[in-house]
Amino acid sequence: MSKILFVVTGAQHWTLADGSQHPTGFWAEELVAPYRVFSRAGHEVVVATPGGVVPVVDEASLAADANGGQENADAIRSELDQIDQLRTPLQLEDVDPGDYAAVFYPGGHGPMEDLAVDATSAAVLVDTLGSGKPLGVVCHAPAALLATRDARGTSPFAGYRLTGFTNAEEKQAGLADKATWLLQDRLVELGADFQEADPWSEHVVVDRNLYTGQNPASSAPLAEKMLEALDG
User: Fold this and answer.
1) Maximum distance among all alpha carbons in the chain?
2) Who contacts 35 (Cβ-Cβ below 8 Å, separation ≥6)?
3) What pTM was estimated for this model as a whole?
4) Which of 71, 98, 105, 214 would be a feasible disulfide site paired with 141, CB 3.0-4.6 Å?
């Protein structure tokens, strides 16, 4: 059994262009679905957050309309409640990525607030990318890649094919006009080869050991792709 590190946002809000705070956290499906994939395959998931803060779920991700109905929403909430690691996360600052067979970043708007500027997270990302181990990042979590720029403004993720939450999806979600910046724009500025599919469609991009998913629907397929590499 291998250990897989989940790096989860510790943010509870996302600061908008007008200075207001939009309540957020991690997106439930993007944590629960990959957790299910890895744990059912016999792998141990370890959760870490910046400062070891207990992460919060974005309540919008537990709504019926975000889960195809109330029954599914109740089921995902129940699964979430059973993940004990979320109540006792490790401090990301104390984590050695070399101890893990893979690293995974769930999304939600939270990473736009904290992981996008977190140097410790950046070191984990760069180390894992260089190690050749599977590195999975989904939806808004690629915001964490923005913190990997060095003093010259360059990133080891420049030139990689990847995806993430698109401008079109942010517009349809109703937050694009309120945001200080949009994820797709920043990833392009980073030098990434951004791969965009139709809004809300399942879309996974694999480039070497980097595995990225566009949106919540892509989170389980992304984990399945990583599992192929882990168990292959």
Assistant:
1) 50
2) 6, 45, 79, 83
3) 0.98
4) 105
* Positions in the chain short of pLDDT 50: none
3-state secondary structure of 168: helix
Q: Domain spans of the chain? A: 3-231
Q: Which residues are CB-contacts of 216 (< 8 A; sequence separation ≥ 6)? A: 27, 29, 30, 61, 66, 107, 138, 139
Specify the CATH number of the domain 3-231.
3.40.50.880
Show the tokens assigned to 38: 């890895």
Cβ-Cβ contacts under 8 Å for 161 (sequence gap 6 or more): 192, 193, 195, 205, 207
Edge to edge, what strands does the sheet with 90-91 contain? 90-91, 44-49, 3-7, 102-105, 135-138, 210-213, 204-207
Distance separating alpha carbons of residues 161 and 116, to the nearest angstrom: 19
Identify any residues that bridge with 137 across adjacent strands, giving them in sequence order: 105, 212
